[in-house]
Amino acid sequence: MDPRGLTLRVELDRARPPRGVTRVGNAGHEVVRLWTSGSRWGDEMLSFRIDETPIARTLQIYTVNVRSCTPLEPGDSLPLPFDLDDGTWEPRPPPSGRSLTAILQIAPSPEADAFDLWTGRVVSPPVSLTGHSA
Prior knowledge:
The protein has one domain: Sandwich (Immunoglobulin-like). The protein has helices at residues 40-44, 110-114; strands at 6-14, 19-26, 32-35, 46-50, 53-57, 69-72, 77-83, 89-90, 99-106, 120-123, 127-128. By secondary structure, the chain is mainly β.
């Protein structure tokens, strides 16, 4: 858990190739702001590791690429769906492995300051990719 109360967990729908939802939770006492998915900034904040292999979203082409943030109230969670086989993640195809870990990271920047965003890094507990059939 992040010092300000952010938590991160992975819920798998399918293990091979991995697909599901990452849930960002706010266990703190203050509103936390994160980039909104669907823009360069929002899409860059979430990445994964299968065992030790990093997996990141490829650079997308957006019709409208607007910086916006999503407030996360105390006690709430934000679902971030993912499908590592949808063609927007590298490497392609995703490697096989034993476990999947999600990483939520927003680096300090003038843009993050302007939107009063949470900055930092939270890593989920690893989720087993073996024996999971969904």
